[in-house]
Amino acid sequence: MKQNNARLELSKEEMKNYGYQIIDAIVEHHATQHEKLPVALGSREEMDSLFLEEAPEQGMDSSEVLNFVLDKVMTNSANMAHPRSFSFVPGPSNYVSVMADALATGYNIFSGGWAASPAAAELEIVTIQWLLKIFGFPKKKGGGIFTSGGSMANLTAVVTARRIKCGDDFSKAVIYLSDQAHSSNIKAIRVLGFKKEQIRIIPTDSELKFSVNKLKNCIAKDRLEGLYPFCLIATAGTTNTGTVDPLVELGKICKKEDIWFHIDGAYGGAAILSQKGKQAMKGIEKADSLTVDPHKWFFQPYEMGCLLVRNHKNLSSTFTEKPEYLRDIEGNTSEINFYDHGIQLTRRFRALKFYMSLKTFGLKEFRDAITYNIDLAEEVETMLRGSKSWEVVFPATLAVINFRYNPINKKYSEKELDKINQYISAKVVDSRKALLVTTILNGQIVLRMCLINPRTTMEDVTETFDLCKKYALEIEEELAKKV
């Protein structure tokens, strides 16, 4: 038989050299990222001019390809781990988890079933149990699964709720969530085929929390009309403001009404490790299912979400399929096949990075980092309240703060204030010195800072405010000329 030379391999020495180059680049990035710019800007035309080409028939030197990627790809991607990346939800990450990901990918471990990789399945069981304990879920009866992110965890939760509460007929099923719930929940509901008429968006109160009274009225009305309330989605740390819904009251309603209680804690759930966060999360342990996102405030690299459930059997009864080609690898009931607990059959070994980073740093360092983030946001709020130029629109809540430029000696209209603050954000982002974008609260355009990076300092914040003030003065001059 003819020898095959198309093995897609480098020599051992070439692999080492290539690996060292990559490690050197990653270490340099982690050690110096605070000196770099967090924002990447580029139009489609600019990116096409750099990368658009036909797939090459012949290969080229691996180091040449790597250098091109380091020079053109990595420099044209936003750095969400940068200390001045304040927008959306930053991804602070940590080096140990990065290397763990490299190990998991390098060994190409399949983390779907026990038979393929018992150690990988066991580490997922162990780390899920750590999280069950942190959130007060039943350790023996409870369970969970790591997902690509909060979107997939929320989808998995709603699928499970529908299966357990509705069976095969969900034609009259109704689901409830607030107007501050994350968009991934709406996406999950639509993906599952629910009609618009089956979704209830409950208005929030003046503190942007789930309105309990309005919810009760809506449930009662739906029952009178012959509909079937089956699921409620609360939020433990909204993306906009960090607000935590009244979890205790919502849990009682769900228990009384026999409604599946899902809590989306993708952003704020990890705050439970801090003293202030633990107070805010009271009632989270009553959820039937809970989404948390380790690639947010548990400082893991992308992608890593997680769904916890009070009863692990609810996952297996929802997702288990028995194709013929898997008949010989089922194992016993204690040997969990995670492809039976979620949507994916082929799964990467996500648990390893969480396991290795927690083992390396310890839970205390994670707790201290989260506490620092919450305290930093409150310090920023104090600074803003002491300024004649800034207005706190929504107070610091779980490391998120919303504010706007609104000097007390000026009488700008709401329209002018919207224009000023939008201008400030656009100019800051254009400068690439900080990632600071707007959101809308109570119809106002406001600036929002999410301060969950443990390497962000007060100096990072104050220098960003200096930049904001510079651009505020620019737009004020333009407005003055028009008067």
TrEMBL record:
Q: SUPFAM superfamilies from the xrefs?
A: PLP-dependent transferases
- Keyword field: Aminotransferase, Decarboxylase, Lyase, Pyridoxal phosphate, Transferase
Q: Does the keyword Nucleotide-binding apply?
A: no
* Family annotation (Pfam families): Pyridoxal_deC
User: What InterPro entries does the annotation carry?
Assistant: Aromatic_deC (IPR010977), PyrdxlP-dep_de-COase (IPR002129), PyrdxlP-dep_Trfase (IPR015424), PyrdxlP-dep_Trfase_major (IPR015421), PyrdxlP-dep_Trfase_small (IPR015422)
Modified residues annotated as N6-(pyridoxal phosphate)lysine in this record: K296
Tell me its family: Belongs to the group II decarboxylase family.
> Under what name is this protein listed?
Aminotransferase class V-fold PLP-dependent enzyme
Species, as recorded: Flagellimonas oceani
